[in-house]
Amino acid sequence: IPARVNEALDVTAGAALGALSVWRHPDGEIALFGDSAHGIAHAPDTLLAYGRSVAVDARPPSKAGLLDEGGFARLEGGPFSLLVSIAGPAPAHQPGHAHCDALAFELLCGGERVVCDTGVHDYLPGERRRLARATLSHATLEVGGEEQAEIWAAHRVGGRPRVELVDFLGGTRLEATCASWSTPDTLHRRSFLLSGGALEIRDALEGRSRPVRFALPLAPGLEPLLSVDPNGGAEARIPLADGRRLRVVLPATARWRVERTPYYPEFGHELERACLVGEADRVGSAAWRFECEG
């Protein structure tokens, strides 16, 4: 093999292993954004070990935790680890494996998956494929009852949202914006902050006011205890496997309920799980707070 080819392969494989270290969660498995699924390729630890066996070292991204070209960023602090989607459908020339997940996130508490993306069941046109790609199947906002992107057939995307990373600092703070393809005059601004062992998320809708739906899809087996006070505040307490509870203070501007929604961790595998859904006629700003109790 010519030296230049060998060098290019080494650099590319090293960058891929570096990206994998950002993309996988503390439980050792990958996130489920887009058409990701467990069990269809070698496990991350196997790939990293193989890289070491052929003297290919993981090359971390230039800014720790940020895959700027891939469109994802990792935040870690206290008991929390989360991966945030900070780009629209990609790659631009064929985004068929992309979903409507801009500004969505997956969240782990103490190494346990709590907020999970939906994954993918199959590649056939139909309801499962539509649900897997839909905005409300991800931990983000649906504006005006419309999808973030113009998704159709099984792998087609027409109009795309405008998504921009505004700020990323030290793996503990992130801010990004999204204007959906069908509602370009409404800008969703979302910020994340890990501080003092808690996670705070703030949402703001700028421009034209429209109805909004919030979604917080949970890992299967987690059952939230939802409580709403007479003044409109709402919170959920989610029992975790280690005996602790995750307390989630929900945006008070919305009317909250628990729905049962599908989860596709592997091709052809469907599970049922709980999803917190909130509806609001209009939103100026909204705040979430996640705290681990016990």
Would you write up a description of this structure?
With 294 residues, this protein is mainly beta. Helices cover 13% and strands 41% of the residues. The protein has helices at 3-23, 44-53, 127-133; strands at 66-67, 72-77, 80-85, 105-109, 112-115, 141-143, 151-152, 156-157, 162-169, 173-179, 186-195, 198-207, 212-217, 225-228, 234-239, 245-250, 255-266, 269-280, 285-293. The strands form four sheets. The chain has an eight-stranded antiparallel sheet, with no helix packed on it. It has a five-stranded antiparallel sheet with strand order 1-2-3-4-5, with helices on one face. The protein has a four-stranded antiparallel sheet with strand order 6-13-18-17, with no helix packed on it. Strand 7 (151-152) and strand 8 form a beta hairpin. The longest helix has 21 residues, at 3-23. The mean pLDDT is 96.
